[in-house]
Amino acid sequence: MSLEDLGDKGRRAKSQRATEKPRGDTKPTLKTIAELTGLAVTTVSHALADAPQIALETRQRVRKVASDIGYLPDRAAQRLRTGRTNVISLILDPHEEILGYATSMINGLTEALRGTAYHLVITPHFSDTPQIDPVRHIMRNRMADGIVFTRTEPADERVKLLMENNFPFICHGRTELATAHPYVDYDNYSFAYKAAKKLIAAGARKLSIILPPERFTFAHHLKHGFMTAVREEGVGFEIAKGVTLDSKSDDIRDYLFRRMAEPERPDGYICGGEVSALAVMASAYDHRLELGQDIRLVAKQTSGLFDQIRPRVETIYEDLTEAGLLMGKLLLKRIAGPAPVAELQALQTV
């Protein structure tokens, strides 16, 4: 066998070892990856941390070997060594109005984190506890390097707390605080304004809208857009009383059923989500009112549901997956170091 054949054989053996998992119950370590790749342990460590001084090709090769052999970092040791957890925490508020909200948001965030050292952890928040509780818990115990949260309020205590402590975060929604902060938001003012204009152009003469609870910032944006349009056009209007977008779907349906049986009922509905739009359709059907003639509606669409509905419903799309992707990218930028706040803000247009 020639020296060249021996060299080829050695290279093939090394390549094969780089894709083999350790035998038995041995837990893969940084040293394991170093032996399989022929790199120093410190180089492997920096590559897995996505350090920019390590060549991209090397980082990708190390991550692939780590994935192939099932390597998982020791987070406790990592935290002691670097002060970082490599975790992003998404605080989610369960609510049924916006279909696919959590799934779409998570899909976007995980796409933003793909190929980085960061992992997404979901932290639930329930309406019977203060919004600030999970944020304070994560921050004080340093359970994540950055926080994502939703449903902002005009004077949001979570934003104040995180800014005072210089803790990286980004929120889905804006506030009315004097100090600028990172956010990704959807232009709900334009949604309500354009939805009202569409209904009026289609012949509606009295419009109705069901708003979110007043404590949320986007409730004010929706109301402002709605009121601007109806005042410009001089048509009748009403804002639903006794229910909000956070009400149970049965309560929204019952409200609409009662209202459609009363005098001077609205003939145009703006729906901030697909659940309330379905309630409008069900109530109209129960009263034998024809969609597009007796009742018109424009719904905010966040899933593919209304693509399958007949008769077709006028919709305006909010891309929640894109929102998650933007939030992930901007939060990673904030974690990497100081950046002008204007570069950490994004408004999704209608």
UniProtKB/TrEMBL annotation:
Matching SUPFAM superfamilies, A to Z? lambda repressor-like DNA-binding domains, Periplasmic binding protein-like I
User: What residue spans carry the region label Disordered?
Assistant: 1-28
Provide ranges: composition bias, Basic and acidic residues: 1-10, 17-28
Q: What are the HTH lacI-type domain coordinates in residue numbering?
A: 28-82
Keywords of this entry: DNA-binding, Transcription, Transcription regulation
Query: Where does the signal sequence lie?
Result: none
InterPro entries the record matches: HTH_LacI, LacI/GalR-like_sensor, Lambda_DNA-bd_dom_sf, Peripla_BP_I
Q: Does the keyword Signal apply?
A: no
Claim: Nucleotide-binding is one of the keywords in the record: no
The record's GO molecular-function terms, alphabetically, read: DNA-binding transcription factor activity; transcription cis-regulatory region binding
The name this protein carries in UniProt is HTH-type transcriptional regulator AglR
Q: Which organism is it from?
A: Neorhizobium galegae bv. orientalis str. HAMBI 540
